[in-house]
Amino acid sequence: ARSEAVGVLLLLLLVLGVADLAPRARHPTQSQRRYTPDWPSLDSRPLPAWYDEAKFGVFVHWGVFSVPAWGSEWFWWHWKGEGLAPYQSFMNENYPPGFSYADFGPEFTARFYHPEEWASLFQAAGAKYVVLTTKHHEGFTNWPSPVSWNWNSKDVGPHRDLVGELGTALRKRCVSTSSIPSLLVCFRSLQLASYLKGFWLLNKHMGPAPYSLSHRCRPSLRMWSYCFYKLKPSYETQNEFTCWPTYEYSLKDDVVVNDRWGRNTSCHHGGFYNCQDKYMPHSLPSHKWEMCTSIDKLSWGYRRNMVISEVVKESQIIKELIQTVSLGGNYLLNIGPTKDGLIIPIFQERLLAVGKWLSINGEAIYATKPWRVQLENMTSVWYTSKGSCVYAIFLHWPENGVLSLAFPITTSSTTITMLGIQEDLKWSTDPIKGLLINLPQLPPSALPVQFAWTVKLTGVK
Known about the structure:
This protein has 2 domains: 2-364, Alpha-Beta Barrel (TIM Barrel), CATH 3.20.20.80; 381-458, Sandwich (Immunoglobulin-like). The strands form 4 sheets. The protein has a 5-stranded mixed beta sheet. By secondary structure, it is of the alpha/beta class. It has helices at 2-7, 39-42, 49-54, 75-81, 85-94, 115-124, 162-171, 194-205, 210-217, 233-248, 314-326, 345-361; strands spanning 12-17, 56-60, 129-135, 222-223, 256-257, 289-294, 329-335, 381-386, 389-394, 402-405, 415-418, 427-430, 434-438, 453-458. It has 12 helices and 14 strands. The radius of gyration is 23 Å and the shape is globular. Strand 12 and strand 13 form a beta hairpin. Belongs to the glycosyl hydrolase 29 family. Keywords: Glycoprotein, Glycosidase, Hydrolase, Lipid metabolism, Lysosome, Signal. Residues 379-458 form the Alpha-L-fucosidase C-terminal domain. Its EC number is 3.2.1.51.
């Protein structure tokens, strides 16, 4: 039992688009290109446009770890793998002697899991893609995997295809970015090497896997691996190999993978970089990246003992989203549902707050590019751009009602508006203070949003 507890140390996730993005140009020969199982070849693949345009996604950590719902989603590892005293005490105080991790499986009921409600919530949050744990470190698959030895959501617990149901619900709300689950495993040791062949066959022949569903659904797909152990050299080669069929067997150019494929790959190889949890660079990176973070400060999976002080504030979430996009990244915000399939109200509230903000300011976020300057020095103004438009998102309303911007260079055709407000704003220039924008003279309650406002500049150099 102990070897099984520590054998699989992977986080692989499903990506499902929930809203259509602008039509995207395709590389004319990319779909005909062949890739070899080495990083120079794999890294030469262009990043699919949909992913860069999406900007905001929702992360969902859900599995058998949602049953104890205590400590973190690595409950099994901390209890059996490391034998940490707090986890040992928790089990001794709440469960009978001899209770195994497998005994949690039947309690993972998903009784109140309504994927249509989830999909509606994620869409209302403004998410353009959803990342669901199809298989976490515990080895339990959230779909009827034929090689999971009765450790899956069809044979145990919910007796449902959790992944497939959510995929169906999300595809109803999307045109161009529907997607499918995939499975790719990496192991801490060679003792479970035989699993690899089984999962490779699953990928190629068994649904819902990339090869089979890609023909039926024509999906977009994002592979999100989480393998951070130092693997043996043979497994480094295997990791490169496992990226390769994802590209080779896709019928579309929309497949994208992250960078967590084992030793020396994080922040070095992959379509986009995660680098580490809650990674936030201080300047504009040269490679596409993503910040993944959680509404619960201390865990990714649901915790029954979470308190309000451990929940990230709405303003902090929106600030991180703005900063991430300004620096060219995507923002992936995590929630953890309960074992019953409920998304607790505080998580819903935070997601809907983001959606409300994006309903006004989304123009300055979706499908934007970093501007020549990302941040005003010593101020809280972040820039993005789209075509000939520049967006300045300011986090604090100036006391005198005049926003000062040092970097935009105006012309005779410059016009400035605030997103959510119809009329043009008056402006002037000052040799020292730069561009001075007269903001709307409105009471705070009449402003389109209560935090982080956007001015749109057209006709600037």
